[in-house]
Amino acid sequence: PTSICPVQENVLQRVLQLPVVSSTCETLQRKYSSTKESHPLMASVCEAYERGVQGAGALAMWGMEPVVRRLEPQFTVANNLACRGLDHLEEKIPALQYPVDK
């Protein structure tokens, strides 16, 4: 593990790449997809929800852009501190490097 995240990487990306997290996300995605496939009514509700979340997310990003630009230096410092904390967790908790089933 490195003590500072590379410029293009952030702590959220690193967390999502941990085997324990990525395998959990894959399992949840498979269950979500199989539920949608086996229940047509649930599929239509899920699709409407997904469209709503995408629209709300795009609107939120558009509205937050000026704030994010202004606070970028503080986000960089916080990201680097969070990466150091993640380095420490990865050293102390080796199970983070294994998929959930292990």
From TrEMBL:
<comment type="similarity">
    <text>Belongs to the perilipin family.</text>
</comment>
<dbReference type="InterPro" id="IPR042998">
    <property type="entry name" value="PLIN1"/>
</dbReference>
<dbReference type="GO" id="GO:0006629">
    <property type="term" value="P:lipid metabolic process"/>
</dbReference>
<dbReference type="Pfam" id="PF03036">
    <property type="entry name" value="Perilipin"/>
</dbReference>
<protein>
    <submittedName>
        <fullName>PLIN1 protein</fullName>
    </submittedName>
</protein>
<keyword id="KW-0551">Lipid droplet</keyword>
<dbReference type="GO" id="GO:0005811">
    <property type="term" value="C:lipid droplet"/>
</dbReference>
<dbReference type="InterPro" id="IPR004279">
    <property type="entry name" value="Perilipin"/>
</dbReference>
